[in-house]
Amino acid sequence: MSTFEFTVLGASGGPSEGGTQSMLLREHGTLGSEKWICVDAGSGLHQLMSMLAKKQRLAANERDSCMGDRIESLYRNMEEPLSAFIDRRLHVLRGLNSSELLVSEDNIICAALKMFNKIREYYITHPHLDHVAALVINSPAVKAEGKTILGLKSTVDALKEHLFNDVIWPDLLAEKSTPLDFNVLRELKVHKCVSVPNWSILPFPVSHGQTVVGRVPNFSTVYLIKDQRTDNCLLVCGDLESDLISGKPYLSNVWNYLSENIPFNRITGIVMECSSPSSTEKAHLYGHMSSRYVVHELKQLSKAYDRPLDGLKVIIIHVKMEPQEIDPRLTILEELRSLASMAGIGDIIFSIAIQGYTFIL
Ligand SMILES: [Zn+2]
Ligand SMILES: [Zn+2]
């Protein structure tokens, strides 16, 4: 039974601006509800407008099937079919899964703003700009209902000190009737989601390389979202590096927690960053994953469960769109499929997160 609807507002890991990591999540089968959360906010309002506009332009008979959609690529080909990025076993929809959001009386801008103000909680993985740019730029559009920005202490402190500091951006929190609020999450402590009361959210700290100056460890977050009704779980990663590189057991802790607490068939998906293809040298990963490290970590997950990961849905996000002959998203997808097959860790369903599409998980 599907539990989660995962809409990709932004999937890029840069370096071009716009379209960077942001995911909109809600319970599957709750059409008409206003229960949304966002994990990361590199993209936001503009993407909501684009999705509504695209849906509005399509004729009624074109609204359903999307696997033949042409996705902008700008590498070997200007476009690639959606099916080149997504395993056909996945249920994917164009835009938001929300008939109620078809624009009727409102224009696109007004409808997108209404939608935007239904998102009341933002779970931020770490404060890098590609994960929070839209949170900042969109903030003047936040209405009185407000938004809560949640993250581990290092994330919340950095956002307050370095972004909403009255220099880089107005200190909206200093206003008496501020519509923005921050909430510090505690590491490895279950947090009850307010927007979606059936969900509990467990934050794991993970390594994300080191700072440039002083080589101080840099942290990010993996969120485990559990639906209390179905016991199904979705694991959503921000930027992160493999334990093989950090030399610390951050990801092992995640895999061990999962294997000790969550039956394998309750993991409905893992959204995992993979910034670069395997050929990228370790020294050039800068706290990120490449295909071979993703497969190494999945192998650790397979060992933790002591079983192959047959049927596990792994959705790759945060690919760096760097200059090369073939679209790096396609290179990474091919590498993951072949490396996982060589590692003998089971029939994993790999796909790439594509901006503007919703995965039903
Ligand atoms: Zn980062
Ligand atoms: Zn990033």
UniProtKB/TrEMBL annotation:
Pfam families: PDEase_II. Keywords: cAMP, Hydrolase. The keyword Hydrolase applies. One of its GO terms (molecular function) is 3',5'-cyclic-GMP phosphodiesterase activity. The keyword Hydrolase applies. Belongs to the cyclic nucleotide phosphodiesterase class-II family. This is LAFE_0F17942g1_1.
